[in-house]
């Protein structure tokens, strides 16, 4: 009996599912059609009106909820049909439990679905693609879930990178003095035997990565000495220790390392997040500095400055080219690096700075009062010259033949004009004084607005309807007449 | 779901034992005579210095960079000590700056090493005075660590000169000396010296140790090494062919068991009967029970020769492929033939499956198939581990036995 009933139930269910599917499909199709038509209408306009935005949000909300419903329904269907096959009442409970589990774990969150839909709705046009090595590769669409997941994994994986950064900083700042010395010696070796540069990556891979991994798997060294107080200290470490000038910093450093060892996994996530935040902000800073360098310092913003830099670069390149055969580069490079690092040693650096300041004070007295006038660079580059146009538009008065001034506009406002067809006034101003030159250009002060009398030519060049009549310098249609004003602009 | 949780909760893991092999410190915690304590405390600074020096040699210090810098300084000062061409052959473009710098560097590094070692000895003394005096335990554990490190070096040195035969050692030296002389013709003395010192002091670093271990995994390296050392490690086995085995078995006296069967002449004498009778006879020793009621006249005497063959199957574990018949080239073949006559093993290039096909015409196999014994498991050098496979085992072997018989014509 029970099997017959269950069969019946499953049949009804499948019928209903099919029926609702059709309904859902029709809703989706209709919704899609509306959105596509609205987007094609608004294509001419760059922005999205508020009405459209609301429409789109609503559309994606409906879409997301339908999809969510469908996903859930599919799972319940498959599971319940599986369950139908062996309709044993004892299996009922675990099956429903499983369904609930899956719904909780596997399903995408509704908000995620909604946001994804919304993104794809609002930015309906095709996004530009980045270059890929393989042509078959395509950019993945922006989804909130993937982005969030990536952020999550990135923050958890960031530790290694940060550790590497820490070790590099420790090397640079002499906080690991023997390491710094060793790297300097290595650099010297590279300077003298550049072939090492080819060998070094291999050495790094084998000894830096593979040997520690091997030791992790097969530890070869017994621990001989039980931890005890360490007596005595090598002279080198005593000489290079960073502690004395700013003892506080060093102790702070030690505290930090202690904290890292004791930290729990949950706190580690926060630490990684913090690191990520700081990394992104420093990345932004870096790009800002880079932009400033490219656009201002090297971008002829301050023309004299950039010109000097350009000349200096060329001159030093030439000089280097000529003198380089007579220079012992190995010695120069290694010695300068050693000197640089020694000068930045925490014990030597501050003293050196003080010394330099003292010397400056001594020498600067001599040059006081001497104003260095910079007459070495001649800035006589011809500016860019261009001309701008504006249309002075008149409107037909009530009495024929009487025209009233309408406005100045860059739009010609002929009968085929978009604004004219939409029965809107074109963007423009009432006063000629309010017409401004294009961005970063300026009007030639030695020129005035000039009327273009060659109407035929400009109307032809602007692709205007040749039927329009010409009266003096005006081009007329039934409602409006306009004339073209031009002016020189400089940059 | 819940049952799995319960299992997780009841899972209990054993702890590593902390009792090491070293318990000498415990011996001294009892009553220790004052003189010994005094002697220990006097010797403590020396122990400490020796310990740190051994740490440097064995690379057990935490600061490997410091070790490397020290090595670099040693090498530079060696260069200073060994070279006599300082600054004479530099090019003009260097304007002698480079040579001057290097000269100063060499001089300084030697002096720095000297001063640094004196400083270290001094700093140990200063620290000992500064800290509270060490306990007996500390002193003993330091001594223990020194002894352990020395023991390690000792074992390695003896390993290096493992050639037990004195003649071999002399031969080794005689071969190496001209090689060294030739090398010195091409390489400058200081470079050679620096290379030797660097190689010796880097030997115990993790890098070299791991590199050696990884290189040792390469089959060609092992072959190259064993080509020379093979005779010290395992006796070279002779090859034997199927024909030789048969020949030796049929002519050898020890192997040939002659068994006399007495069969009722009315009985239907066939292979099966002889086989069962032989098996019974060899197995139990008393096969003629059921012939008691039969008179001597009715009996037919059948004399048989029985030969026993013993092969040993060898296998090696090849990582993820598991147990494979392929052995290392110097290890011999998959099957070795064990001769009972002179108790020696021979390399056999075929398998017993092929061997059984080449049975001479008048011989028959007594058993239907080879009887295979249990596997015995060995480590990679074929020393016995046990009867069960474990991660420790890399080779295994088992015996294959089978007997053949022939009826002697009378």
Report what the structure shows.
Chain A is an alpha+beta fold and 491 residues long. Chain A is 59% helix and 9% strand. Chain A has 15 helices and 8 strands. In chain A, strands 1, 2, 3, 4, 5, 6, 7 and 8 form an 8-stranded antiparallel beta sheet that branches. In chain A, helix 2 packs antiparallel against helix 3 and helix 6 runs antiparallel to helix 12. The longest helix of chain A is centred in the N-terminal third of the chain and has 40 residues. In chain A, 8% of the residues are buried. With 410 residues, chain B is an alpha+beta fold. In chain B, strands 1, 2, 3, 4, 5, 6, 7, 8, 9, 10 and 11 form an 11-stranded mixed beta sheet that branches. In chain B, strand 5 and strand 6 form a beta hairpin. Chain B is elongated and about 110 Å long. The N terminus of chain B is likely disordered. The interface between A and B is large, with 33 and 43 residues.
Task: Please describe the biggest sheet of chain A, giving its number of strands, its sense, and whether it closes into a barrel.
Answer: 8 strands, antiparallel
Helix content percent band of chain A? 55-70%
How many E-type strands of chain B? 11
Strand content of chain B: 15-25%
> What's the number of helices of chain A?
15
Oligomeric description of these chains: heterodimer
Number of discrete domains of chain B: 2
Radius of gyration of chain A over alpha carbons? 38 Å
Mean pLDDT of chain B: 79
Low-confidence stretches of chain B: 1-6, 21-25, 86-93
Largest beta-sheet details of chain B: 11 strands, mixed
Low-confidence stretches of chain A: 39-46, 80-95, 244-258
H/E order of the elements of chain A? HHHHHHHHHHHHHEEHEEEHEEE
Mean pLDDT value of chain A: 77
Structural class by helix and strand composition of chain A: alpha+beta
Keywords for this structure?
heterodimer, A: 491 residues, eight-stranded antiparallel sheet, 8 strands, B: 410 residues, alpha+beta, eleven-stranded mixed sheet, 13 helices, 11 strands, elongated, disordered N terminus
């Amino acid at each position: 009996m029970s099997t017959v009933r269950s069969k019946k139930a499953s049949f009804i269910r499948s019928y209903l599912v099919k029926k609702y599917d059709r309904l859902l499909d029709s809703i989706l199709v209709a919704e899609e059609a509306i959105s596509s038509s609205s987007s094609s209408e608004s294509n001419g306009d760059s922005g999205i009106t508020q009405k459209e935005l609301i429409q789109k949000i609503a559309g994606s909300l409906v879409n997301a909820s339908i999809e969510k419903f469908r996903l859930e329904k599919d799972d319940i269907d498959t599971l319940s049909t599986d369950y139908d096959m062996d309709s044993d009442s004892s299996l009922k409970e675990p099956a429903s439990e499983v369904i609930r589990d899956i719904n909780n774990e596997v399903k995408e969150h509704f908000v995620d679905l909604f946001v994804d839909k919304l993104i794809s709705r609002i930015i309906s046009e095709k996004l530009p693609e980045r270059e890929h090595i393989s042509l078959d590769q395509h950019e993945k669409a922006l989804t909130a879930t993937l982005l969030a997941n990536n952020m999550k994994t990135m923050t958890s994986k960031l530790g290694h990178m940060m550790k590497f950064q820490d070790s590099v900083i420790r090397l640079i700042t002499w906080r690991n003095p023997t390491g710094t010395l060793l790297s300097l010696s290595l650099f010297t070796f590279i300077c003298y035997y550049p072939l090492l540069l080819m060998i070094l990556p291999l050495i790094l891979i084998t000894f830096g990565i593979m040997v520690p991994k091997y030791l992790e798997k097969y530890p070869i060294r017994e621990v001989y000495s039980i931890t005890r107080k360490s007596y005595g200290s090598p002279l080198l470490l005593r000489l290079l220790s960073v502690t004395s000038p700013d003892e506080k910093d060093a102790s702070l450093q030690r505290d930090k390392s202690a904290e890292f060892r004791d930290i729990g996994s949950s706190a580690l996530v926060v630490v990684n997040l913090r690191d990520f935040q700081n990394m992104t902000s420093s990345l932004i800073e870096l790009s800002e500095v880079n932009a400033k360098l490219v656009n201002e310092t090297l971008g002829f913003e301050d023309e004299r400055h950039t010109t000097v830099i350009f000349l200096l670069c060329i001159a030093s390149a030439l000089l280097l080219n000529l003198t380089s055969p007579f220079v012992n580069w190995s010695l120069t490079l290694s010695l300068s690096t050693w000197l640089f690092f020694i000068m930045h040693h925490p014990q030597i650096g501050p003293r050196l700075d003080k010394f330099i300041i003292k010397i400056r004070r001594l020498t600067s007295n001599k040059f006081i009062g001497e104003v260095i006038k910079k007459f070495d660079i001649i800035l006589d580059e011809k500016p860019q010259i261009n001309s701008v146009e504006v249309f002075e538009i008149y409107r037909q008065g009530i009495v024929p033949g009487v025209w009233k001034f309408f406005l100045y506009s860059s739009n010609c406002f002929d009968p085929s004009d978009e604004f004219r067809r939409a029965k809107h006034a074109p963007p423009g101003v009432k006063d000629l004084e309010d017409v401004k030159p294009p961005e970063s250009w300026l009007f030639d002060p030695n020129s005035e607005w000039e009327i273009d009398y060659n109407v035929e030519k400009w109307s032809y060049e602007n692709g205007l309807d040749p039927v329009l009549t010409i009266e003096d310098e005006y081009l007329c249609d039934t409602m409006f007449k306009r004339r073209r004003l031009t002016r020189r602009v400089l940059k | 779901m819940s049952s799995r949780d319960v299992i997780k909760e009841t899972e209990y893991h054993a702890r590593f034992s902390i009792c090491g092999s070293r318990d000498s410190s415990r011996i001294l915690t009892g009553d220790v005579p004052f003189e010994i304590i005094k002697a220990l405390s006097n010797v403590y600074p020396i122990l400490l210095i020796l310990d740190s020096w051994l740490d440097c040699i064995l690379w057990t210090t935490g600061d490997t960079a410091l070790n490397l810098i020290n090595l670099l300084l040693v090498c530079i000062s060696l260069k200073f000590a060994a070279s006599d061409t300082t600054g004479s052959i530099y090019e003009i473009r260097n304007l002698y700056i480079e040579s001057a710098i290097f000269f100063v560097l060499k001089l300084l590094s030697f002096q720095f090493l000297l001063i640094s070692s004196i400083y270290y000895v001094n700093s140990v003394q200063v620290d000992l005075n500064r800290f509270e005096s060490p306990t007996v335990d500390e002193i003993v554990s330091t001594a223990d660590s020194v002894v352990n490190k020395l023991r390690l070096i000792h074992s390695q040195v003896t390993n290096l000169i493992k050639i037990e035969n004195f003649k071999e050692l002399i031969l080794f030296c005689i071969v190496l000396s001209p090689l060294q002389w030739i090398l010195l013709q091409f390489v400058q003395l200081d470079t050679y010296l620096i290379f030797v010192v660097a190689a010796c002091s880097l030997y115990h670093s993790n890098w070299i140790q791991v590199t050696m271990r990884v290189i040792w995994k390469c089959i060609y390296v092992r072959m190259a090494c064993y080509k020379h050392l093979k005779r010290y490690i395992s006796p070279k086995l002779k090859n034997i062919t199927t024909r030789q085995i048969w020949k030796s078995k049929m002519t050898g006296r020890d192997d040939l068991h002659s068994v006399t069967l007495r069969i009722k002449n009315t009985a239907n004498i066939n292979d099966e009967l002889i086989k069962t009778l032989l098996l019974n006879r060899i197995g139990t020793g008393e096969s003629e029970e059921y012939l008691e009621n039969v008179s001597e006249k009715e009996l037919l005497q059948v004399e048989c020769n029985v030969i026993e063959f013993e092969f040993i199957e060898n296998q090696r574990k090849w990582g993820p492929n598991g147990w494979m018949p392929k052995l290392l080239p110097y290890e011999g073949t998959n099957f070795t033939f064990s001769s009972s006559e002179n108790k020696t093993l021979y390399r056999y290039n075929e398998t017993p499956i092929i061997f059984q096909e080449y049975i001479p015409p008048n011989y028959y196999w007594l058993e239907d198939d080879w009887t295979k014994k249990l596997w015995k498991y060995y480590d990679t050098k074929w020393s016995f581990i046990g009867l069960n496979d474990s991660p420790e085992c890399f080779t295994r072997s088992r015996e294959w036995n089978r007997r053949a018989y022939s009826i002697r014509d009378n």
